[in-house]
């Protein structure tokens, strides 16, 4: 299919076999895995994301196999990601404990520039035969007389474009923008708030290669070194407390009251973000009531979103995309509804396992059991 460039308006006759709403890791992984399975005529609608830091900077060793299967391994290595030995955590005790990838026989992981990583995946979509449309916002989702989905896409200049699709994939993240318009309910178990910033490091070599997790009364801190001598630091907390910590001075004061995070900042001679440089985000634990329909499915965080504490992150997005593509390709190639049903069963089963994992992790930290953040998580 030859679609016009984003600057040109689509007409009502533009149609694709599969439209993927969302150009992040899950959406692009789905498109790339579909291409590998011989599915053609796939359009990815990249609605764009806010500039700056985003959750999910760490990549576990298991990502390497997925990146190779998706055909982007060499492009990934060309970004020169920082090698990571694993993670360390002050969780349930003041001292650090270590989870070493190499000792565990997993190989090395990486810390990545997430914006560059996502851009690398997006660039691979047209390179492998798909179509990538950028800078569009999803409006209404309707039906054509023949049953096709009709997506109303709004451009930055106020122009409206329409795209018809035989099958719709929602990869729009926690918003689940497409399937929520179809009336699918979302079940939220919990929701964390995050306040994050990026520090410049004068002495980057003084910061270990592991990611750092440190519990505190208000929630927990996560720190990881990034390429280009930077350090990402995020505080997870109750949503009602987010506004207070968006004040940079309050956020920095809390960071310096920690034991291990404060030590990293001192060792790296970290320069704080600008006063307006903090970023707010939400991290729900949630799942859709259904993740597939007769001619649609949801993938990645649109289908099921996990607490970042469990460290599934980017690997989950890649593996979810592969699982969705496997099911969708089989469905489109004549296998009927069974592959889609099996995909949904897998999403639900993995979410149940995740809830058990999450519960066990929070149960290990009881030093602030009476603090509101911990009361809410320990009660679950």
UniProtKB/TrEMBL annotation:
Q: Where is the FAD-binding domain?
A: 16-345
Q: Which is one Pfam family of this protein? A: FAD_binding_3
GO molecular function list: FAD binding
Task: List the InterPro entries hit by this protein, alphabetically.
Answer: FAD-bd, FAD/NAD-bd_sf, Flavin-dep_Halogenase_NPB
Q: How is this protein named in the record?
A: FAD-dependent oxidoreductase
Q: Which organism is it from?
A: Xanthomonas indica
């Amino acid at each position: 299919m030859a679609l016009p460039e984003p600057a040109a308006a689509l007409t009502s006759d533009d149609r694709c076999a599969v439209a993927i709403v969302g150009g992040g890791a899950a959406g692009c992984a789905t498109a790339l895995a579909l291409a590998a399975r011989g599915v053609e005529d796939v359009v990815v609608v990249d609605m764009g994301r806010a500039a700056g830091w985003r959750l999910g900077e760490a990549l576990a060793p298991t990502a390497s196999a997925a990146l190779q299967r998706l055909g982007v391994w060499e492009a990934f290595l060309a970004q020169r990601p920082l090698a990571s030995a694993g993670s360390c955590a002050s969780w349930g005790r003041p001292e650090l404990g270590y989870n070493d990838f190499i000792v565990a026989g997993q190989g090395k992981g990486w810390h990545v520039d997430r914006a560059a990583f996502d851009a690398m995946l997006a660039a691979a979509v047209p390179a492998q035969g798909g179509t990538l449309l950028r800078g569009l916002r999803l409006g209404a989702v309707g039906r054509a007389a023949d049953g096709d989905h009709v997506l109303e896409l709004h451009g930055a200049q106020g122009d409206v474009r329409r795209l018809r699709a035989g099958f719709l994939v929602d990869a729009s993240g926690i918003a689940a923008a497409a399937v929520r318009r179809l009336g699918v309910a979302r079940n939220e178990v919990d929701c964390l708030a995050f306040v994050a910033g990026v520090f410049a490091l004068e002495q980057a070599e003084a910061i270990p290669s592991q990611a750092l997790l440190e519990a505190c009364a208000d929630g927990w801190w996560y720190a990881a070194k990034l390429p280009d001598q930077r350090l990402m630091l995020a505080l997870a907390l109750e949503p009602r407390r987010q506004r207070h910590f968006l004040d940079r001075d309050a956020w920095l004061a809390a960071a310096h009251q920690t034991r291990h995070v404060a030590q990293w900042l001192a060792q790296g001679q970290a320069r704080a973000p600008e006063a307006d440089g903090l970023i707010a985000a939400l991290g729900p634990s949630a799942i859709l009531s259904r993740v597939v329909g007769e001619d649609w499915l949801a993938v990645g965080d649109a289908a099921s979103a996990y607490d970042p504490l469990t460290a599934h992150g980017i690997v989950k997005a890649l593996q979810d995309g592969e699982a969705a593509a496997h099911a969708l390709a089989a469905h489109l190639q004549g296998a009927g509804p069974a592959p889609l049903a099996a995909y949904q069963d897998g999403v639900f089963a993995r979410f149940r396992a995740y809830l058990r994992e999450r519960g066990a992790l929070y149960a290990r930290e009881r030093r602030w059991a009476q603090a509101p953040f911990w009361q809410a998580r320990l009660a679950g």
